[in-house]
Amino acid sequence: MQKKLPHPVDVHVGGRVRLRRALLKMSQERLASSLGLTFQQIQKYEKGSNRIGASRLWDISKTLNTPISYFYEGLAVSLERSKGLAEDEQHDYITEFYQSSDGLQLVRAFIGIKDPRIRRNIAQFVRSMAEAD
Predict the structure, then answer these.
(1) How far is CA 10 from CA 29, 94, 106, in A?
(2) Closest CA to 46 of 28, 64, 73, 69
């Protein structure tokens, strides 16, 4: 029996839940507790393997202090890409970067650097490392 893949909309919305939660430095356990769920349920939501109902998404949006529309941002591009119609492959990299824990840590640390010269030097260093690889 073939395993059913999650719907792309559920994957996108779940990924946005994960991103927002991570941006707020909130654990899955804390989000789950505030919603009266288990952290395993939050994991399933974030992977897209379980759909998030309308009322649950409403509760999540209130807990994460963001409008419901946030969870659907970029969805059209995401769906087009899954059908092979997207022209901008950069969006894939950006989304994956922000949704990874390493990417999120890098962004937070980089934003914390106030000196523009240091930020430029770091960006140049990362570019040179990528080219050397």
Answers:
(1) 21, 19, 27
(2) 28
pLDDT of residue 117: 93
Q: How many CA atoms lie within 13 A of 47 on its CB side?
A: 10
125 and 90 in a common domain: no
- What pLDDT does 78 receive? 65
Q: Domain holding 22: CATH number?
A: 1.10.260.40
Q: What is the pLDDT of residue 85?
A: 47
Cα Rg of the chain (Å, integer): 17
Please count the structural domains in the chain: 2
25-52: pLDDT as tens digits: 899 999 999 999 999 999 999 999 999 9
Q: What is the pTM of this model?
A: 0.71
Do residues 17 and 55 both lie within one domain?
yes
81 and 33, same domain (yes or no): yes
What range defines the domain where residue 131 resides? 101-133
